[in-house]
Amino acid sequence: MKNIIQVKNISFHYPDKPLLFDNLTLDVHEGEWLAIIGQNGSGKSTLARLIDGLIVLDKGQIIVDGLTVNDQNIFDIRNKIGIVFQNPEDQFVGATVEDDVAFGLENRQVEREKMHEIVKKSLMDVSMLDFRNRIPANLSGGQKQRVAIAGIVALSPKIIILDEATSMLDPRGRNEILDLVYQIKKDNQLTVISITHDIDEAANADRVVILNEGRIIDEETPENIFQNTGQLQSVGLDSPYTSQLLAALKHRGIKPQRSYLNDEELIAWIKQLISKK
Amino acid sequence: MSNFLFGRYLPGESWVHQMSPQSKLLLSFYFVIVIFFANNIASYAALLILIMGVIILSGVSISYFLKGIRPLIWLIIFTVLLQILFSSGGKLLWHFGPFSITDQSLINGGFIFIRFLLIIMISTVLTLTTTPLAIADGVQTVLKPLKGFHFPVDTLALMLSIALRFVPTLMDEMETIMNAQRSRGVDFGSGSLKHRVKAAVPLLVPLFTGAINHAENLSTAMEARGFTDSEHRSKYRIYRWQMKDTISWLVFLAVGVLVLGIRKW
Amino acid sequence: MDKAVNFEKVTHTYQVDTPFSQNALENVSFTIQSGSFTAIIGHTGSGKSTLVQHINALLKPTDGTVSVFDRIITPKTTNKNLKQLRKKVGMVFQFPEKQLFEETVIKDIMFGPLNYGATEEEARKSAVNAMKLVGLSANFSDSSPFDLSGGQMRRVAIAGVLAMNPEILILDEPTAGLDPRGHKEIMDLARHLHDHNHMTIILVTHQMDDVVDYASNVVVMDQGKIVKVGPPKEIFSDPKWVYKMQLDLPSSALFAQKMIDTGIKLKTLPLTIDELADQIVQIAGKEGKKDE
Question: Can you give the residue ranges of the ABC transporter domain (chain A) (predicted)?
Fold first, then answer.
């Protein structure tokens, strides 16, 4: 499998702070949905900013789709990566929805005629076309995040990074945004990196990386990550719902073979228990 | 606070909305200049009628508009009071210590009040009917000649647009912070001047901290979206001079001439 | 039990017929008992925040009356003499860390008590206590609140409200943006304050799991009206209605629904993991245990 992002032996520290990353290495496969989980302060968002060249490495190298992240390549790299940030308010640059979607296109000096076409199409992709004249003050958080996604789709990137993009939304808004990104990923064959502390979001990823105090402590499929509930707890994360239910059953004397099953597997297993009765 | 209109944009399709921002901006400047030529009741009345007409054409109800600028009117009244109390000349009507009121100062105060009111009205109409981005574009076009002197016109325009875009956000935040501090026992509206200044600290510190946070996050987001400098960008919107602009200019020029004709020379 | 809060036909209108008109309260009547743990739920924009801001008179009814203990607020109530009320009703806003402003943590926490007339010494004592309650080490007392992590700042802000020793504590989405550990710490604090300090807790939330795990009484709002009041069991008993209110089911009910959809029969819709696990043990019976 091709690695679309290679993070090679990087070190990084914020001014006046101890080393956050010390010789960190991570590959992101082309076309995968990678969840990076960890509690606040674990370095998740910093990693995203390093990949996009928004902050500068101390040591090591990051390669994005064949290009090393450095001053010369920075704009080509930002053409390949779109980031949805945490705070919906603080990434809304335009005066209205359509102006905001156009912002990235204007930066790339796209022709006006073409820009109008792309803006319209992108807003349709996120079902926000009817809102194109709205001002940010009259949009919900979820709607603002949709606009942010439209602004990214407009630039046809290869990679979307969700930097805790759903953490300030209500559960409904969160699910809608995730469903939307799934759809866009599928339609455009994108790679998605979702930085999150929502374990249920991670459960739907192809691969999960646990980051704790700047170190990768595990890198596996969700199924395998979730088997180790102790590890999740030790880094301050929840275990997935099904694991919690399995633990409660175990406590009541029913012992499953594994400590993580997805919804379907768990229901099948419960059915089996009942039929044995 | 949420009915405060100054600096807000109200989406719409009215006559005024459809005018080009450049001509709205220039007309506003022009209007302000004309205000300073007015010096009697007739000339002020002409300007008031004109601005009322503009407000009607902007599709905003007048009572709503007046309510929206009320917080600023207190500010003007305060200024005008100072003006009245400290100016001299004319027939003395009342005095106490350093304060005095004369018939002349009353009339002057009244005129100053109307002047301020007119300025606030025209600038509120401007922001109500023009998106922040369009205002910024207008500023950019109007200031373009300065580019020759290496004046950062584009950057200034973009800064202005973003600043205006964040006005409602910061207003809402201010309201929340005020409520939070009220819940902690702060009384914003009363007490001595010293007390009021002291009460402003728990409001202003969080407000500025928040604004700085917004600015930091925003600049990161802008950079991530490929922003480098404000000059090498294309434009999503263009604003064409329209019949509406021509007609508006003709009306404004006519009123200007009228004011010059009826003012006291 | 005594009534802590009582709404009597309360209506609140924010600038009617303006382009910025915001949702209002419409003829809202309900009671919160002293010492209860009440959750207020409803989709975004249903009027939850407007409702709770009436409890400490940040907003006043356009019509109707709000009583908080023996204090009655009507449309005619002036802004004077609200201090005694506001002292009794602690209000933790969404993202309360945004209200911090003092140079040191301890000063910020003492701010409320001092405003309410406490002496320097009393205020300090309350602040130290509040820091203990929220689990902030005394070492932070002289740090600048702006040097702390997001989760710590939030706890400082909550301590600043607790230091006023309120009898009613309103928490408006107190865990928004926190990681799971931070979330649990704040929610457990709310439970502690309820159980041990006998505070009346009013929680505004979107997290249905918190509603069933912590609250004993639930108020459901929709379009400025109260559409249902009752214990969690009653509120979530009709999933279709819950969805109609644009709300979600708690995780356990959601999972149980999935089980039911595959043909497994459950007696009642379980709301918590323990309830669901108990039911599974019941229907799977001892046979299940033989798996061991």
Answer: 5-238
